[in-house]
Design a protein that fits this description.
Radius of gyration: 20 Å
CATH architecture: 2-Layer Sandwich
Distance between the termini: 42 Å
Structural class: alpha+beta
CATH topology: Ribosomal Protein S5, domain 2
Oligomer: single chain
């Protein structure tokens, strides 16, 4: 949708307010530049799911449900299981969300969360999908569903946090006589690297962690960096704008620091 004159004016107003505060060493909610809003994580919030979690960052709330089912393997990977990530932006979460088929925002959020997990080889590409082989023509499929309950900015980090909390509490049902016995647990999903996303917004020379919706609108550029428990960058996703080499190096430094802080909520 093309920007209207009103949209452009509102963007300029928000940017001028945010920038003026930053030049005085402040943010609109009085946080430090690298400080997150209050965070909380609850596991096992859906009784009927194999794994689940609810993560809150500020007013943003993301619910994750993990479901394990039987599936036919892909033809080029006959002995590997399936991992799929989907996202739904519930209309009640934000006035800009509309009912209907998945839109660009939901597809992008699912893709960024999925890429962070896969790129870290968090027992997905190099681990549990290979362990999901059952018999010829039959494997386990793990479906990770993201539900945005309230969008107050920085959905990506909240979704990443909820996803890893849900996966780390996922129970694999017992498989017997060609069926899954859901009330019996064969094992827990073994998670090792715990990749987590850190989203940053750049406004002139200022780099802000956990940007609010106003800061995201006002920013010149934004980037999400997923880091792992063992100190590696798993994935990067750049949004709008440009970053210099030094900007990226600075962003990676912040992502490592914030990633370690976020992991304390799920380890």
């Amino acid at each position: 949708m093309a920007e209207t004159a009103h949209d452009i004016i509102m963007h300029d107003v928000k940017r001028s307010v945010v920038l003026e505060l930053l030049r005085r060493g402040k943010r609109m909610d009085e946080r430090a530049l690298d400080e997150y809003r209050p965070i909380s994580v609850q596991r096992d919030v859906i009784d009927t799911a194999e794994g689940s979690a609810l993560a809150k960052i500020g007013t943003t709330q993301i619910l994750i449900g993990v479901k394990i089912d039987l599936a036919t393997p892909y033809g080029d990977r006959p002995e590997e299981g399936i991992f799929s990530t989907n996202c739904e932006l519930l209309p009640l979460a934000n006035p800009s969300f509309e009912a209907g088929p998945p839109r660009e925002g939901s597809i992008e959020l699912a893709r960024v969360v999925d890429r962070g997990i896969r790129s870290a080889e968090v027992d997905v590409d190099d681990g549990f999908t290979k362990g999901f082989f059952l018999e010829e023509g039959k494997v386990l499929a793990l479906y990770l569903d993201i539900y945005v309950l309230d969008h107050g900015g920085n959905m990506t980090d909240a979704a990443s946090l909820a996803a890893m909390a849900a996966l780390s509490s996922t129970k694999i049902p017992k498989y017997e006589d060609g069926k899954l016995i859901r009330n019996e647990t064969a094992s827990m999903l073994d998670i090792k690297r715990f990749p987590l996303a850190t989203s940053l917004a750049k406004i002139e020379e200022f780099l802000l962690a956990d940007p609010t919706m106003e800061e995201k609108v006002a920013c010149d550029a934004n980037i999400t960096i997923s880091t792992t428990k063992d100190g590696n960058v798993a994935a990067m996703q750049k949004g709008k704008g440009e970053f210099t080499k030094q900007d990226v190096l600075d962003a990676v430094d912040v992502a490592f620091k914030k990633g370690d802080e976020l992991r304390k909520y799920i380890l």
